[in-house]
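Protocol step 4 of 6: structure prediction from sequence.
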Amino acid sequence: MMTTKRLMMFMFLAVLLTGLLSSVIGVSAADQSPASASVTTDAETAAKLGLLLGDGNGVNEPYLSKQTTRMQAAIISLRLNGNLKEAMAFTPASNFKDADKAGKSNEPILAFLKQHSELGWSGNPDGTFHPNDPISSQQLYKVLLENIGFHSGSEFAYSDTLTFAASKGMASIAAVNLLTNAHLATALIEALVVPTLQGDSLFVALQQKGVLPQSAVLPQGKRIQLTSHKELGTYLTDNNGKTLYYFAKDADNINACQGQCLVNWPIFQSDELQIPAFLNKADFSTITRADGTKQWAYKGYPLYTFIQDKQPGDVLGQNANKVWFVIDPSTFKGMAAEVKTYQIDIKQFSFGTEPLTVEAGSKITFTNYDEMEHNAVAFDGSFKVPMLKTGESYTITLDKTGTYSYFCELHKSFMTGTIIVK
């Protein structure tokens, strides 16, 4: 039978061992918490400010996944310069030849733009406007810059639009080939903080013009942006253009960077965070480091800046010691996570009524339940599901973020679908 003295000694050793184990665990791991409540997307901000209204069901995922057209960009431009109400009530004397393609409610707007060519929407030499054509990042940034007060042909050449926009902190969608309304939302929010020629930000100028109410506020905290590099592609930066890096050794010990390492590689921290509308809130989390400080993480990896990066866009830390790297959100897989599988059931000549939203790296299985054969082919050629007979299935994997529209080759005119990869 254990004596009281030996029992007390045993309990003391147990407590001591527990404390030692806790300290070891504290060094080798960190508390990682989802932070969706303190993350705001540009789409949420644009909707709250009334700059994006959606198309009947609000600014939701289906709306954000839609391709942005010239007509939408024109309406946004008129909303920003305070002319939208007048344009909607305009009585057209003449109009663009293809104004009817924009819909009855938009015809007065196009007539207003034709009448006021100084607004930058003069149309095409043949008298058309092409309202449903996609708009490029160069065209959209040009429109936003002119609303801020910088004019093409004066403050910048049209061919230099993307470079000039980047110098004003507007670059997150520069490398995007096919813009969606999510990209539109991000470009809008980028523009709001750019100083006008009068010195105030566009946000303040819009309040002064009555476009935005005086009670309107922008989200607080730091902002995630994207910058493009000819060799590294697109990568994450903060709102000052400082590149964000991940540390490969954090995969084994999330507190691997200590002491002088943290001096050279400051952690990325902020109480709140703003992110582009086309990134996934769920990919951002906060970790609590061993010293109690909070740090933002992307797909499980803590984020850092580099002390030697002095100018916006500098990437001097890339591949440092072969363990520090920039983050391209379209290809970055993050810390190992369970691969999810999603189902698309082909029934009654339909892939379903709503877009399917999945995580990058997910598997998507198509199963045909119709008696007729069907397949699925991406418009951009990124995947092709073979013809499936009744009951047959086929699985694809999508690693890159983006919006994938697809169709059945036998019924292309009406049988289409969309997959959003975040």
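Step 5 (inspection) to follow. The first helix runs from residue 4 to 28.
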